Structure formats: structure tokens, C-alpha cells
Amino acid sequence: MLPESFGGRIIYLLQQYGPSFLKGAGVSMWLALVGTLFGCIIGFLVGIVQTIPVDKNDSTAKKVIIKVVKFIMACYVEFFRGTPMMAQAMFIYFGSAYLFNINMSMWFAAIFIVSINTGAYMAETVRGGILSIDPGQTEGAKAIGMTHVQTMINVILPQALRNIMPQIGNNLIINIKDTCVLSIIGTVELFYTTKGVAGALYTYFESFTIAMVIYFIMTFTCSRILRVIEHKMDGPDNYDLATADTLTHTSGMYSYKERKDSRE
């Protein structure tokens, strides 16, 4: 028998279906982490391609190829940013079987959908992060003989990564919540599990209260961890400026906090 009080029903559901809620939460977190990881890889690749410079001295063939590739990348970004993930899930999972006779497994389709959707958003983030770096960095790298690839890997991307780290965290948080739309293709994640529990006992309010608390715990924990990572990437406030020039001050340069006047 279900208890009559709200708190009693919450406790009853946790006792009876706690492992199911935890399993669904684990699936949601796993899909979000893997999808964000692959989405970041896609986003970095697309963002880098979109920022490839075209020099007036380049051959006509190279200019045409770069323009065509950039156009295709732009179409990909605009399409997946301009349509909801739920519609994308239906189109890819059921449409691929209907149009191309490609029968995707449910798990592959889920990861694929989250990845390409995240990749479209990350592509614009990476492009903006690269363009935010002072052009003097690129000019300096080229002045010492670096190629475009070497400049991107060793100079631009490390700085751009720090700038876009908050957006990577935002995409992870969004993906944790948006995995619920994958229930439409049969993915047994937290939302799907909650619907099953609520429908079995007609405890919709209590069941989704539990689900909301679990979603909040996952997103809040991830946001705190990402804040710590961002802080680590900032480096120390006070540091030595390493130098190999014997004519300069060998102990480096220091940054000290201002001291109050002892007479105050």
C-alpha cells in the first residue's frame, strides 16, 4: 500500500525503485559525458577548419576546396543548431532505417545524436575562441617559422581552450538534461525510468520530484568540478618568469600583493 503523505510516498518509491533511478541516472550521465567528449572533438575539428586562412597567393584549386568545405561545415552547424534534438533523434534513428536501410543500435544512435548535436554548438564556440586570440600571436609564430598547423597546436589552441572551457562545461550540463529526449527512441535513461515508475503507481508528482532532485545533484556536482578545473587552468597568482637569458634577472619576476602601510 502506498502511504498517504507526500514524504511517505517519496520514501516508498526510493525503497522500491531506488536502484532503477540510480541506473537511469548513470545512463544519463554516461551518455552526456561520452556525447560531450565526441562533440568537443567534432567541434574542434570543424572550428579549426572554419578558421583556415586563405591567402591571395594560394592556388585557385585550394581556394575552391576550402570554400566548399567551409560551406558544408556551415550547413552542418546551422542545421543542427536550428533544429531540436528530439526531431534529430527521430529523423536519424528511424529515418536512417527507412531511407538507407541502416539499422542503428539504440545505444549507437543515442551517442551519435548527442555527439553531432554538441559538435555543432562547439564548432561555433571553438571558432569564436580561436578568433578571440590576439592576431599578434599568430604573426609571432609565423615570424619564427611555424606552419599554420604548428601555430594552431602550440600557440592558439591552448589559449583558446582556456577561453572556451566555461562553454564546454555548459554543454555538459545541457547534455545531462537533454538526454531525456532520447527516451523517444527507447533509451532507458533517467526520464524513461521515471515515466515507467510514475505510470505503474500513478505517482507522477512524487516520481518526477525524485528525478528533478537527481538531475540537480548531477548538474550541480559537474558544475563544481568544472569550476575547480577552470581554476587550475588559471595557474597561480604569483609565479616566476622563467628565462634562459643570462643577461636578464635570473631569479625571474614576481607579483606580490600590496602591503598595507605599517603606520596605519
Automatic annotation (TrEMBL):
Domain ABC transmembrane type-1: 25-226
Pfam families: BPD_transp_1 (PF00528)
Signal sequence extent: none
Transmembrane spans: 29-52, 92-114, 204-226
GO molecular function: transmembrane transporter activity
GO cellular component terms, semicolon-separated: ATP-binding cassette (ABC) transporter complex
Domain of life: Bacteria
Keywords carried by this UniProt record: Amino-acid transport, Cell membrane, Membrane, Transmembrane, Transmembrane helix, Transport
Subcellular compartments: Cell membrane
Membrane topology recorded in Swiss-Prot or TrEMBL: Multi-pass membrane protein
A GO BP annotation: amino acid transport
PANTHER family listed in its UniProt record: GLUTAMINE TRANSPORT SYSTEM PERMEASE PROTEIN GLNP, MEMBRANE COMPONENT OF AMINO ACID ABC TRANSPORTER
Family, per entry: Belongs to the binding-protein-dependent transport system permease family. HisMQ subfamily.
Protein name: ABC transporter, permease protein
Organism listed in the record: Blautia obeum ATCC 29174
